[in-house]
Design a protein that fits this description.
246 residues; alpha/beta; 8 helices
Length: 246
């Protein structure tokens, strides 16, 4: 199951999982786009099913996993990719947006992981991969009070999952993308911000969704059986870099 699977990083992860033989549940609020992607994957010989999901609504999460259980009796891989972000100055940051962001980005991740892990425990095998961000590991520009805080919480939550689920054969890891060219960043990032951000990255460019999906697919694989509790930056060297140009 991939939450936020209809677009951006989530959609690329769905393509990668389907190409590796997984049946993919494409879970998203945007059901028409999720269905369009499912149709695309079917045409390529993959197995995919679209499902409406609001990760900020506990009833919606429970209903989605009940449907997965009814049809497939298992969930081997969960990728928590759904998330929201808005930018406001810290002193004027709206409380309502802060609460909404934490609910979707953090509580939604928790709820989906709980439901998925209960299904994974039946077979003593599972992979949970949470999409965090470099903004959860350091402050990235102004205005990201809710987003950065939520992604930092996702990293901490991932570690807790890893510790408690290891005995059940389940790994939990986070991928922390740097700036990626997605529909969300095209709205959030001004041209000036994009230029300045790229200059702060040793590779001097934004990443693409395929590069993030590649990290997710490794952590979702059998080969990652001894990797759990990590927050993997995929950021072109952004976190490793200090004052560039000296």
């Amino acid at each position: 199951m991939v939450t936020g699977g209809a677009k951006g990083i989530g959609a690329e992860v769905c393509r990668g999982l389907a190409s590796r033989g997984h049946k993919v549940w494409i879970a998203d609020l945007d059901l028409p786009h999720a269905q369009s992607l499912a149709d695309e994957l079917h045409q390529q010989g993959g197995q995919a099913q679209a499902i409406a999901l609001d990760v900020g609504n506990p009833e919606s999460v429970a209903q989605a996993f009940a449907e997965i259980d009814a049809q497939d009796k298992r969930c081997d891989v969960l990728v928590n990719s759904a998330g929201i972000a808005k930018v406001f100055p810290f002193l004027d940051f709206p409380l309502a947006n802060f609460v909404d962001t934490m609910n979707i980005n953090v509580t939604g991740t928790l709820l989906c992981a709980q439901h998925a892990a209960r299904l994974m425990m039946r077979h003593r095998w599972g992979r949970i991969v949470n999409i965090a961000s470099v903004a959860g590991l350091r402050a990235v520009g102004s205005g990201r009070t809710a987003y950065g805080t939520s992604k930092g919480a996702v990293v901490a939550l991932t570690r807790q999952m890893a510790v408690e689920l290891a005995e059940h054969g389940i790994t939990a890891n986070a991928v922390c993308p740097g700036p990626v060219d997605t529909p969300m960043t095209r709205v959030l990032h001004t041209d000036q911000f994009r230029e300045e951000y790229a200059q702060a990255i040793p590779m001097e460019r934004y990443g693409n969704t395929q590069e993030i999906a590649a990290a997710v697919l490794y952590l979702a694989s059998e080969e990652a059986s001894y990797t759990t509790g990590i927050a993997m930056p995929v950021d072109g060297g952004f976190l490793a870099s200090g004052a560039r140009g000296l």
